[in-house]
Amino acid sequence: MVRCRKFFVSITAILTLVGLKIYFEIMYELPIFSELPPTPTEPPRNPLVILEPFKGQEDVSMNTLHDMANNLRRLLISSNSYWNNKEQNLLDSKDMRAWTCKTSKEPLKDLKTYPEPLQLFLQHGGCREYRLIIDQPDKCPYNRTFLLLAIKSSPQNFAQRQAVRSSWGTERCYGGLYVRLVFLLGVAPGQDFSPLIWYENGQSHDLLQWDFLDTFFNLTLKDQLFLGWARLRCSGAKYILKGDDDVFVRTPEIVQELTLLGGHQTQSLYMGHVVSSAKPYRDPRSKYYIPYSYYAGSYPPYAGGGGYVFSGALTPWLYLVSYFVIPFPIDDVYTGMCFMALGMKPTGHPGFQTFEIPGRQKYPCCSKTHLLLEHKKSPQEMLQMWSKLRDHVQHC
């Protein structure tokens, strides 16, 4: 009886997925390039000038990255907070590494007072060695990927993924420039979606799944696992767009915007909706709650994790420099820390909206139709927004 019920649920879910795919394909239309907001003119620093001569020389590269990571000392105010002390020790000793799967010999005294998600995050000791369940080894053939869309998704978000595939995330070539898509997944806590996930991947060939619990505080881990995958499987991608599965992206316009970049900006880009002076949430009711005993001080400048773009050439160095950045449970803040370790800060772009902005502070150049990326969109809204974009773009 139980087997029959499971079989019935699986068949129903598969039929639902197929129905969603058909519906999305019916709704689907192509957009055009539209008028773009101005590109920021301030050139970012280019760490590749320092690092690229040492490529392939691991000892020299790691020593150089350790020296560069001393940029993080600007965050380290004097306190007894856990993260601050760990980071201070890491920067003081070239023999230490973060992300080694080793648990602390001196556990936090007040660990039990922390919310359960933060407890679990701390207990796993900064490990990023997890089995890759579903791989896409042929996602970036011949190093011809211009923009890789790396979208964070939860296993159960079938409708969101299908909406992305059928709208702005469709893999295609815009004016000779190839766009590829992967979704980043862990394993759902307490539920087994594996039959449906395997079926979905058999149809779409765009899922990356690792054997770790897909939770909010593990988004930092998801980012790290993706960087490790990308440096091996998609090392030639010129740009990477990291985002959530509830953003709407005007992909052809972002492609065109990126083609307008010049000089070293093409290799040292970290662009999005910038938060320049954020502080940790100290309210225990917030899902972003970070106790003072864990982290003291302000956050580095960072681009909102809902969606940002960075240069693909930075991928291996972001992965390696994180050996000198103690894991932090807020993913976009941790990304900002890693870029700071490379001596970079994010470039703000008015076309990226990943946070709600008070009306009087909104960028005057950007009506909703001129935004390149918007957050918090349902699958239905994605399809409606995509279908309203007029005419066609040039594609291969």
| Main pleated-sheet profile | 9 strands, mixed
Report the strand count: 12
Q: Overall 3D geometry?
A: globular
Q: From the 3D structure, determine the CATH topology.
A: Spore Coat Polysaccharide Biosynthesis Protein SpsA, Chain A
C-alpha end-to-end distance: 51 Å
Relevant terms:
about 35% helix, about 400 residues, three-stranded mixed sheet, Hexosyltransferase, Spore Coat Polysaccharide Biosynthesis Protein SpsA, Chain A, 12 helices, glycoprotein, nine-stranded mixed sheet
Q: Can you give me a brief rundown of this structure?
A:
By secondary structure, this protein is of the alpha/beta class. The chain has twelve helices and twelve strands.
Describe the structure.
With 396 residues, the chain is α/β, with parallel strands linked by helices. It has a single domain, classed as Spore Coat Polysaccharide Biosynthesis Protein SpsA, Chain A (Alpha-Beta Complex), CATH 3.90.550.10. The protein is built from twelve helices and twelve strands. Strands 1, 2, 3, 4, 5, 6, 8, 9 and 10 form a nine-stranded mixed beta sheet that branches. α7 links the parallel β4 (177-187) and β5. α1 runs parallel beside α7 (194-204) and α8 crosses α10. Mean pLDDT is 86; it is low at 22-42 and 358-367.
Task: Give the helices and strands, then pairings.
Elements: H1 2-27, H2 48-51, H3 58-68, H4 82-92, H5 116-123, E1 132-134, E2 145-152, H6 158-165, E3 172-174, E4 177-187, H7 194-204, E5 207-213, H8 219-233, E6 239-244, E7 248-249, H9 251-259, E8 270-275, E9 302-311, H10 315-321, H11 331-341, E10 347-348, E11 352-353, E12 373-374, H12 379-388
Helix pairs in contact: 1-6, 1-7, 6-12, 8-10, 8-11
Family: Belongs to the glycosyltransferase 31 family.
InterPro entries: Glyco_trans_31
Subcellular location: Golgi apparatus membrane
